[in-house]
Amino acid sequence: MIENPPLIQIKKSSSRKKPTPSQINAFKNVPTGFICDAMEGYGALMPSIKLLDQSNKEFHIVGPALTVNSGASDVLGLQVAISEVSEGDIIVNSVKGWQETASAGDRIAGLIRNNGGKALVTDGPIRDLNGFLETHLPCFCTGVNPNSPYNSGPATIGFAINISNVKIDSGDLIIGDIDGVVVVPFNQIDDVASKLQNIIKIENEMDKKVQEGLKISPKIQDLINSDKVKYYD
Known about the structure:
Largest sheet: 9 strands, mixed
Number of helices: 7
Low-confidence stretches: none
């Protein structure tokens, strides 16, 4: 007979990677779109995972992931994960995309905030919307559903999870704004950060030109004038 696995499996904090403050600072106030540009166009979670409170168009957050694999319709792992939160962590909670019950409520949000958590990201809905907003814990989720989850497990904390075909491990950098959530794998943080400075410069220069009246990109104009574009009567 195969024995049942532990109800909750936790990867010790000493075994979890952590980005340095300087690595985190390199991504502060950088739009998620720019970060995706530095990652060959990808890195964002599915667009259904949105900022819950979209009233602040300038919202931006960055921090290390603390991963939780709660599984469908269960909240026990997330409740236990609160004991593992370090100041500034962004809790990334997988419910395997389950939409029929809430993945968290206002009480959990308050506890995450009280323990120094910076935000919650989940591929499920939340409940207790008014109370949730009152905690001022930023949340990226798929919506609101008052159905209650179970509190039975099993779950894992600190191990790799997968949300919308994006692998996420504890210590990966999570960046969120009004456009969505981007994941920068831990071992790519420095490389992506080094590319960002040039991308920011190019984007800002092009924005300025558009504001000044630019009607078409010079690169696109060159393409139109080349033999790669053919007109027909």
